[in-house]
What does this fold into?
Amino acid sequence: MPKEQDVLSLTRELIAFNTINPPGRELPCAEYLGRILEDAGFRIEYHSLAEERASLIATIEGHGDGLPLCFTGHTDTVPLGAVPWTRDPFGGQIEGDKLYGRGSTDMKGGLAAMIVAATRLARIANRKAGLTLVITASEENACRGSLHLTTLGGVLGNAGAVVVGEPTSNYPLIGHKGTLWIEARATGVTAHGSMPDQGVNAIYRIARAVGKLEKFRFDTAPHPVLGSPTLNVGTIVGGMNVNSVPDRATIGIDVRTVPGQSNREAFEQIRTLVGDEVELDCTVDVDGVWTDCENEWVQEVFDIMEPHIGQRPVARGATYFTDAAFLAPAYGNPPTIILGPGELEMAHKTDEYCHVSKIEAITEAYTQIARRWCGV
Ligand SMILES: [Zn+2]
It folds into this structure.
């Protein structure tokens, strides 16, 4: 039986892999984790997304007929940004309670804790249910890696509950809004700026759409925790020079839907609103996720986390979206919790760090969650 990995060493080893997306290059990091999990007794499958890019699915069976628990995390990180770091972003330097590095918070700390908890579970011979790890590539590009897995036909297997290790400061969150990004384009006919009657002004067309979007409200009832769906026009681009009639103008629309609201319907409502003058393209389409707070397993996870966070968790959602948007529907929408050691305010930041104490605490908590689920 191989020796147990130390969770902090493993976090630092994962940080040392440069998995900045773009371009990603998650394969060596996935293979490193694959070897650890294989040694522990997991069955390993890689699913290639592109050259040097792959997601990893690792499974271990149980001896009963219960569905497995799914732990999921991603190996890619966001770029370093323009501002120089004061710590080595791939060094995993530890100072006091802080472990520095790109991906420490989002989410190699959480991933390392899941791996250690999984290898511990693998040592328990009489487990009743199994465990599946879905370790995705390209999460930071609108969850493209998890979406890819759902298109491969059955590779995800089954799961009776899902834990997503994204940064929550170890506070269990039970869902998030959906996201719909739309590019809206108006075209016109160019002419000299001194003779505007000879052209068709694309900026006027897109401006009419912007005016309608500003006044628009979805008629969906507010979600009791996540609130109402929102819409924001985030970008506008149009025109070549001041003395021409512009023949092209585009806007970027950011819609946040609530769980239960269909992204497809939201898109159609916007299409009807802006009319024929504007063409729409959906660039990101990620559904919302929500689990009833009273769900028995959710309450069990709340029991486990209560001593770690010093209070009884209540129903709260994440402000970001996660791989659960694609994985949960693929598993038939089992109860899903977002829970990880990272600090949300450190995600994607210069000098990103994760608290050492939170990585250690979540390793114990994930172990307990897995043991309780697997009946050991
Ligand atoms: Zn993340």
